[in-house]
What we know:
Blueprint: E1 3-8, H1 23-31, E2 35-39, E3 59-63, H2 73-84, E4 88-92, H3 107-110, E5 112-113, E6 149-151, E7 153-154, E8 172-174, E9 181-182, E10 191-198, E11 205-212, E12 220-223, H4 231-234, H5 251-254, H6 257-274
Amino acid sequence: MARILIQTTIPTTEDDWHVGRFSLLAGHLRSLGHEVTARDRQAGEDPVLIALDRSDFDQLWLFAVDVGDGLSAAEGEAVARFRARGGGVLATRDHQDLGSSLLALGELGRAHHFHSRNPEPDPARCCRDDQETTYIDWPNYHSGANGEVQAVGVAAAGHPLLDDGAGGTIAWLPAHPHEGAISAPPDAPGAQVVATGVSAASGAVFNLIVAFEAPGQGRAVAQSTFHHFCDYNLDPRLGCPSFVSEAPSDAIVRDPAGRTSAERYFRNLAAWLSA
């Protein structure tokens, strides 16, 4: 079993995406036997992140919920050293420039495209997808309402991350009205797109999961949005910050198959990052 650090990039702020809003994820990983530490960023230089490569953690699940200032260059270098000594990393963010501090993570950061920094290489994609939430700009792929699920497209057949445990592939992940943009950096050895989604607004295909696997490095995953993991998207009855304006769905509550599929992905991710 793995020693997993679940870490956000903001200090504890009640009306925001603090680490307590990922409690179902943490609880599920603990139920599988993993040792989980869940914490928010400490203001200033974070003592855990800056020393991550010298810690006994096996994995970092990094939820970039900041507006661009959530990781320092030194902390990014510590995460790189953590991967160099075999540590596994999940790095995820959300729409527009939310979580753009991930660009401090080298090749793993370059997998993430934002509005103001490192935009998608195809200019045709630098436009609004979600048209309803007008104060959120691109990238903002609309996979559905919070509380709904989206179909997972398989881009890497047979990849262990998508194993459903019954001889097939994971069918569903939680949806979100405005997911971010990710890709496999062409200069990153062993980077590949594993899964895709389809916009419910435009029909555009976009990437959900990019996996990194190269000799001499810990495995890593870039994910298009942290909403695939948070309590509100697994059970909207658990609530969200007051600035979330979109009406949620109760589809994932009415049909638990979506949550079961997401939890299978969490299981696979924890296993694959340490394999």
